[in-house]
Design goal:
With about 350 residues, this protein is α/β, with parallel strands linked by helices. It contains 14 helices and 12 strands. The protein has helices spanning about 10-20, 20-30, 35-50, 55-65, 80-95, 115-120, 140-150, 175-190, 210-225, 245-255, 270-280, 295-300, 315-330, 350-355, and strands at about 65-75, 100-110, 130-135, 155-160, 170, 195-200, 230-235, 260-265, 285-290, 310, 340, 345.
């Protein structure tokens, strides 16, 4: 039997292959009635050879059950990283319309932990069948996961993984490895004893996301392993008052005899690029590296303000996360626990090709 025919295999076909009657096959498949051991073995051998599965889709459609999913992700504006995640989720939901799968969004402020706590406070009583969670606030996500475990509600993580939880799956980058890659690229550009600016963008919460923490840990671990002997400069950038940050960056650049590296561990390397542009550095001494293919970052890359972007396909994370939850609820299909996204290294020369590739 050809491979493409297996999805349409009928009981009568199995009966012919096994040399038994269709009624005998039916009794084996539905575990009813007596079947001799000899005939059972023949049928089971054929089932194994053709990788037979019952028609789960037809079975579900006949049940008419409705599944309500909840998506907990940050609010976003046009061109943001999370807009791409939202697009992937919506694509998955559009493909699942026939299966009566719906989604409700609970959006929080990614710069404010309290916002996350407020939107998740009353969600347990809303009857969700599955939850997709962006794991920016690790401790709060862990608390939420415990509550979901008690209610036996399946949940999937995206953006960054939190080990030791009972999540059905994780879809996203390996944050630690992502940081290691950034460090390797940086050292190749600036050398082993240069200055590195690690910029933090000021926000209301004064904290860093789980993703950012993992990236910075990977970055520092790699530099430690290669015995990096340069100097680190941790600076805070206030988007509403750039003067102090510009002064500090200028001092670092002028005091360094070689190139200076610069990195931001979230998706806002464009903020640091904007400040470096204001310095009007004719020698292009500051080599910037950042994360995520959002519009402002891509523009900075095209203007040669940023040398590298590391991207992790956010749309695919949202898409795969919803599909995994749905397949589990609909067909009891268990996904792999860890599903790492490719880490794409983007430069000016390939960014347009990358932009053309959309989920």
């Amino acid at each position: 039997m050809e491979k493409d025919q297996k999805g349409n295999i009928r009981i009568v076909d199995i009966a012919k292959l096994a040399g038994v009657s269709a009624g005998t096959v039916d009794r084996v498949l539905h575990k009813r009635g007596y079947v001799s051991e000899e005939k059972r073995e023949k049928i089971e051998k054929v089932l194994k050879e053709i990788n037979y599965e019952p028609n789960m889709v037809a079975r579900f459609l006949a049940s008419k059950k409705v599944y309500n999913l909840c998506v907990i992700i940050p609010k976003y504006t046009s061109g943001d990283y999370w807009e791409q995640v939202y697009g992937g989720i919506n694509l998955a939901i559009s493909e699942l319309k026939s299966f009566n799968v719906s989604v409700e969004y609970l959006l929080f402020d990614q710069q404010d932990t309290k916002s996350f706590m407020e939107i998740t406070k009353d969600m347990m009583g809303k009857g969700y069948d599955g939850i997709l969670i962006a794991t920016l606030f690790g401790d709060k996500v862990t608390d939420l996961a415990k509550s979901l475990d008690e209610k036996e509600i399946p949940y999937v993580f995206i953006d960054s993984n939190i080990p030791g939880q009972n999540n059905l799956a994780y879809f996203g980058a390996d944050s630690f490895i992502s940081g290691s890659i950034a460090a390797k690229l940086m050292v190749k550009e600036i050398g082993n004893n240069a200055d590195i600016i690690i910029a933090h963008i000021k926000n209301t919460d004064k904290g860093t996301s789980t993703q950012m923490q993992g990236r910075e840990q990977g970055f520092m671990d790699y530099l430690k392993k290669i015995q990096f002997s340069g100097t680190f400069h941790h600076i805070e950038i206030d988007p509403e008052d750039y003067i102090k940050a510009i002064r500090i960056i200028k001092e670092i650049s002028q005091s360094s005899a070689s190139s200076v590296g610069g990195i931001v561990f979230n998706s806002r390397i464009y903020e640091l690029a904007f400040l470096c542009k204001k310095l009007s550095d004719p020698q292009n001494k500051i080599i910037l590296l950042g994360y995520d293919s959002i519009e402002k970052n891509m523009n900075a890359l095209k203007e040669n303000l940023v040398s590298f972007l590391i991207a992790q396909r956010p749309g695919l994370q949202g898409y795969d996360g919803i599909k995994a939850l749905s397949n589990y609820l609909l067909f009891k299909q268990y996904p792999e626990k860890l599903n790492y996204m490719p880490l794409d290294i983007l430069v000016k020369e390939n960014i347009d090709y990358y932009n053309n590739f959309r989920l």
